[in-house]
């Protein structure tokens, strides 16, 4: 008995030690697990960014040297940001002689690129900056998806967002101020979806300086914060919404008209009376005009799962003003108009999947179906998207016309004023005072040089016939032909 007791007493410390070691081992395993999870949470978004940024930059820059960029809009932003870099008010002679660009759109946030442009004064700088900003958006979205859903959903989100048609269309069409809205919205929506109200508000507030219409998006985000929270956090939502209203009114009713040559908000002319716009939009959606196709494509990229999340409401202002407009270009799934919707919709996708798990509204099988649909839509569409160009040798070749324009540009004195076809402007605007040819009524300058793309007329501001008429008038007005090579006609006064 005594031996048994002694044995039991002797074994007690051993059991305690074993338990302690087990606890230590479990704690160590937990720390290792958290460490591995933490590393993956950082590694996956970082890899996605490092893959997407150069891919985006390659698409934009190669497109630039293939003549795919234009004076409207890349040339305008080069002149605007060049003005900032020189310490001047933002002007663009492409819009009109001495035109303050803040009298066209309220986009003061582009001043942030002035230091970069001062170091590297070329259109390429803006295109690469836009590529990097778009790629930044993948970081918060992928990290949120990884933290809440796991590795596979995070990879699907990274691929779906990174290869989304909305971003590719924007990268395929010049530089625009919405390059700043994409990462801001990605961070804001990720914070909003995770209930980080203050972070969501802080990421949202600068959107009002991206473009005047973004104030309405700020209002919706603020309203969602106010509805979903209480106490001080509700006040944050109310103040955020008020901030959006304030800057929208200031931009549209005060700042833009004050800086516009005609003392008005010119973009407002593209919006018909509200009742007329609603009726036309309804008819267009039912009859299947480009608005219907755009809605279908926007919903398809998330396997229609975004409709299960209230975060989709943040997309409503952007879709609404575009569809209500009588400018049919706003309706289409091309150009840059859909880029700001990509982070919103993929945030809504993540939120819908998280809600489906926590509320048990989506079975694991249903979740797999959604993720499969997102991946399938992305990969099936890829061969028809701009990035597919990079898969062939032709996608990396410079257009001989652009090489010709660069050679001609080198022979023109830097202070000599030039007018050029819209697709040639981006290759002259960083080195010469440049306007578009044929000249628009708002342009009162007299160019010393004129470069006309006769081989591939851009069709704006005039069609090919209008270009020929303008050339004839220039020749009659004292210009002479200096060169005609690779379809580029060069005139000098």
UniProtKB/TrEMBL annotation:
<keyword id="KW-0812">Transmembrane</keyword>
<feature type="transmembrane region" description="Helical">
    <location>
        <begin position="295"/>
        <end position="314"/>
    </location>
</feature>
<feature type="transmembrane region" description="Helical">
    <location>
        <begin position="125"/>
        <end position="142"/>
    </location>
</feature>
<feature type="transmembrane region" description="Helical">
    <location>
        <begin position="42"/>
        <end position="59"/>
    </location>
</feature>
<protein>
    <submittedName>
        <fullName>DUF2079 domain-containing protein</fullName>
    </submittedName>
</protein>
<feature type="transmembrane region" description="Helical">
    <location>
        <begin position="334"/>
        <end position="354"/>
    </location>
</feature>
<dbReference type="Pfam" id="PF09852">
    <property type="entry name" value="DUF2079"/>
</dbReference>
<keyword id="KW-0472">Membrane</keyword>
<keyword id="KW-1133">Transmembrane helix</keyword>
<feature type="transmembrane region" description="Helical">
    <location>
        <begin position="366"/>
        <end position="384"/>
    </location>
</feature>
<feature type="transmembrane region" description="Helical">
    <location>
        <begin position="149"/>
        <end position="167"/>
    </location>
</feature>
<feature type="transmembrane region" description="Helical">
    <location>
        <begin position="236"/>
        <end position="260"/>
    </location>
</feature>
<feature type="transmembrane region" description="Helical">
    <location>
        <begin position="214"/>
        <end position="230"/>
    </location>
</feature>
<dbReference type="InterPro" id="IPR018650">
    <property type="entry name" value="STSV1_Orf64"/>
</dbReference>
<feature type="transmembrane region" description="Helical">
    <location>
        <begin position="173"/>
        <end position="193"/>
    </location>
</feature>
